Amino acid sequence: xVQLVESGGGPVQAGGSLRLSxxxxxxxxxxxxxxxxxxxxxxxxEFVASMEWNGGKTYYADSxxxxxxxxxxxxxxxLYLQMxxxxxxxxxxxxxxxxxxxxxxxxxxxxxxxxxxxxTVSS
Length: 123
Known about the structure:
This protein is mainly β. The strands form two sheets. Strands 2, 4, 5, 6, 9, 10 and 11 form a seven-stranded mixed sheet that branches. Strands 1-3-8-7 form a four-stranded antiparallel sheet, with no helix packed on it. It is globular and about 40 Å long. The mean pLDDT is 95.
């Protein structure tokens, strides 16, 4: 089992920045990909970004490319999502997720999920 706990969400004005954190524990050696998804009211869960647990290759949704950065602190086993130039359409509940598989952009391939953290961007 892998446990994931997100933090760092909150309200922010458009153009501002936030950094989300995801503390990872448990059998992290089984993880192939770890990443972030978001869920906004009335929309499907959306892939945001992910990275290979070993090797660190990163992947981004087109909607956040150039604004968001995914990174991991190996010493603390914490995943981050640095979000800059935030827009009102970034408002959503953000979830950290991990998978033992290699289909990184589909939420259905992720076995482990955090509880979510809310990000609200006001115009």
